[in-house]
Amino acid sequence: MVVNPEISALAALVLTIGAEMIHSRRITNIAILSFGPSSLPSSWARIAPATRCMAVALAMWGLTTLLTIEPKIHKARAVDPDEIRHIVIVLDVSPSMKIKDAGEGGTRTRRKRAFELMESFFKRVRVEQMRLSLIAVYNGAKPVVVDTKDAEVVRNFLDDMDMYTAFEAGKTHLFDGLDLATEISSQWRQDSTTIVLLSDGDTVPSVGIPKMPRSVNGILVIGVGNPIKGTFLDGQNSKQDASTLRQIALRLNGTYHDGNVKHIPSETISSLVSVEEKSTLEKMTRREYALVAIGTSALILATLPFILNSFGTKWRVGIHSKLQSNK
User: Do 156 and 296 share a domain, yes or no?
Assistant: First the structure.
C-alpha cells in the first residue's frame, strides 16, 4: 500500500476542520456557562481551533513520511570527496636536524621539535578528512608516504626516524622537496592541498622557485632550531636560518612560522586546512523535517488544553470578591 504523506496530511486537515466546526457549534450552546456574560473566550483563544488543525495535519505528515521513506542506517560517516584535504609534508632530514637546540630551553632535537609541531597540528584538524603525504628532503628528495588516510604511518616516520642515510652526503636542497610536492599534488582537485615545509634553513638560489599547481592553496614554512645561537656541525655553525625560510614563504606566497618554541597558531591552521561544511539547516533531510513536525505537533496538542484551561477566558466561576464586599 502506497501512502502519500501530503495527501494524508490534507485528509487529516479536512477531517479535523470538520470536527472543530461541530465542536464550535456545541460550545455556542453553553457559551455563557463556559465564558461568562460575554459568551466569548479570550481573544487569543480564538486561534486554538486552527492551531489544533495544523498540529494534527503536521503530525500526520510527519508520521506518514517516516513510514514511507527509506530507514536511516547509522554507520561510519563517509567523507565527501569534495571535503577531502591533502596535506603534503616536506621534511628536512639532513644531519643538522639532529642537533639538540630546539624547544623550550633547547632540550630537544630539531627533528623531535618538528614531530611535536605536527602532532599538535594533527590534533587540531579533522584527520578523517585529511590525506597525508610525506617527502624527505636532504641532498635530493624522496617520497616516503603518498596520500594515505593513516596518520599513524606518518607519525612513525616523523618521530625522529633517521632518513638521511637514504641520501648521499651533501648540501640540503629544499627546492627539490618542493618540486616533488608540486609533482605529487598536480593531479588533485583545485584548492585542495596544503604544503607544510619543516626545516632549519637552507641556502636557496635566487631563481628556480617551484611553481605551485592549481591544487595548492596554502603553504606553511616552519622553522626549527635556535635562530640566534648556532651549534658547530662538520666545521660549520648551524642554526635556524629564519631569514631564508621567511624568504621561501614570501616567494611562494605562503606563511612563515618560527616553531622553535611556539606551536602553530590555530588561526593559521584554520586558514590553511579549513573545509567549508554545510550548515545544520542545509544538512537536514526529509526525515529530520518529519521528526521536527512530529515533535512540534505533539508539544502543541499536549500543552494547548492546559493553556486554554488557565488562560482561555477571564471569567472565573464562583462568588467574586466585589460581590462579597457589597454584602
Answer: no
**Domains contained in the chain, number:** 2
Q: Which domain holds residue 163?
A: 81-273
* DSSP letters for 3-15: --HHHHHHHHHHH
Pick from 230, 213, 226, 245: nearest CA to 92:
245
Q: Summarize the confidence of residues 304-321 as an average pLDDT.
A: 76
Please state the length of the chain. 327
Question: Which of 243, 160, 245, 162 has the alpha carbon at shortest distance from 197?
Answer: 245
Which amino acid makes up residue 202?
D
User: Where do we find the cell 508539544?
Assistant: 299
Cβ burial of 287 (10 Å; 0-12, 13-18, 19+) is: middle
CA distances from 270 to 112, 125, 151 (A): 24, 8, 19
Question: How many other C-beta atoms can be found within 10 angstroms of the C-beta atom of residue 48?
Answer: 18
- Give the global pTM: 0.63
Q: Is the dihedral of CA 209, 210, 213, 217 positive or negative?
A: negative
Question: CB–CB of 90/135 below 8 Å?
Answer: yes
Find residue 223's DSSP bridge partners.
199, 258
Model confidence band, residue 294 (pLDDT cutoffs 50, 70, 90) = very high
Does a structural domain hold residue 17?
yes
Query: Tens of pLDDT along 196-239?
Result: 999 988 767 767 788 889 999 889 999 998 888 867 776 666 78
Same domain, 232 and 307: no
